[in-house]
Amino acid sequence: MAKAQSAGPKSAAAAHVALASPLVSTPSAVASDIGRYVMALDATRAAATMLIDKIQTADFTPAAKVEMTRQVRLSVSEQEGLVLQGLVDASPVSLLTDSRAELEAKAVKAVLNGTTWLTAQRVGERQNPDATNQHAVTSRWKREGKIFSIERAGQTLYPKYVFDELGNPIPEVAEILKIFAGYRPFRIASWFESTNSMLRGKRPREVLATNPQAVIEAAKDHVVGAVHG
């Protein structure tokens, strides 16, 4: 077992290098040939699933399996981020012919339109209208892992559903973000916007304020399913 454990990080690193080659270079490249990039992203996800399956059945220690799986998932997350960020910056996209690309574009549109998005200035004003630096509070909360944001066309935006009625972060959001450690922000936002069977078909963002513990359990289930699926 000692030999398998020492091979673990090396194998994981190799997997990371294999998956880490950029799919895109700029958002404009995504907009010009989005179908090709989405197909490449699908191939990356499929390769990652195969790698994770092999890791789970290989003769590695449990700790090595966890670390190798984590590195593979981070690599896939990086590739998803490149494509999805390009889609966000270019949204709305109307000249798509590839059906898979159309689905990705619709997912982006659903995330952007599913909730109200707040700038750092607006978040600061809601929390403390008299504060001198309205951006300071969002910077601190984000640094502490209490909230997350997405980037759209160079602007940082925060989803309204992570805040309570007084403009403070909902406490359970921090735990949810820990569960999704390594996920790209837009992927987290997409999960919050997707219907969830554990929440009786509701979206996590719809349940967060009234039953945050249920949302935490749904997040755990999603991550476990993604690792073994």
TrEMBL record:
Name this protein carries in UniProt: Antitoxin Xre/MbcA/ParS-like toxin-binding domain-containing protein
